[in-house]
Design a protein that fits this description.
By secondary structure, this protein is α+β, with helices and mostly antiparallel strands. It has 3 helices and 4 strands; from the N terminus they run H-E-H-E-E-E-H. A 4-stranded mixed β-sheet has the order 1-2-3-4, with helices on one face.
């Protein structure tokens, strides 16, 4: 008898739960009307396309975005012969979002860093640098999109 009551109470609690995915593809709540990205042209293009892909024309939240992108490469490690063995790439994006229909504006700084090794050949070092930059850029894009989803899903 007690077990039946517990099962019934548990079923009622589960039925009353209104679980909803935050990142569901059918619920894009923003429409990016204009986006201005300053910085490296390749990175700016990738950011712009990724943000515009998440934009929905039927949304009520029409926004303008300004992104200032900067990149810094620094030496992390040297060996005994004073040769560089590791670099660190740091991407920083200063994002400001202006809602055109209301006064809900915000700005935030995002950063992502990744270390990469120096290869035996220069071409290997360049490939490592490209991969590290790609990973950092993907992390930066995910941070921006997650914050936009959280900010406009309230």
């Amino acid at each position: 008898m007690k077990i039946n009551i517990k099962i019934l109470a548990l079923l009622l609690l589960i039925q009353g739960c209104s679980y909803e995915l935050i990142n569901s593809p059918n619920k894009e709540k923003i429409f990016v009307q204009t986006i201005n990205v300053n910085g490296d042209t390749r990175s700016a293009f990738i950011i712009k396309k990724s943000v515009m892909r998440k934009s929905n024309k039927e949304s009520n939240n029409r926004i303008e975005m300004d992104i200032d992108l900067s990149e810094k490469v620094s030496i992390v490690e040297k060996n005994i012969q004073n040769q560089v063995t590791k670099y660190k790439i740091n991407l920083v994006a200063k994002v400001s979002v202006n809602n055109l229909k209301s006064d809900r504006d915000y700005s935030k700084n995002y950063s992502s860093e990744k270390m990469y090794d120096v290869g035996d050949k220069y071409s290997i070092t360049l490939e490592n640098s490209k991969q590290a930059k790609k990973i950092s850029l993907d992390n930066l894009i995910n941070q921006i999109l997650d914050d936009l989803n959280l900010y406009y899903n309230q």
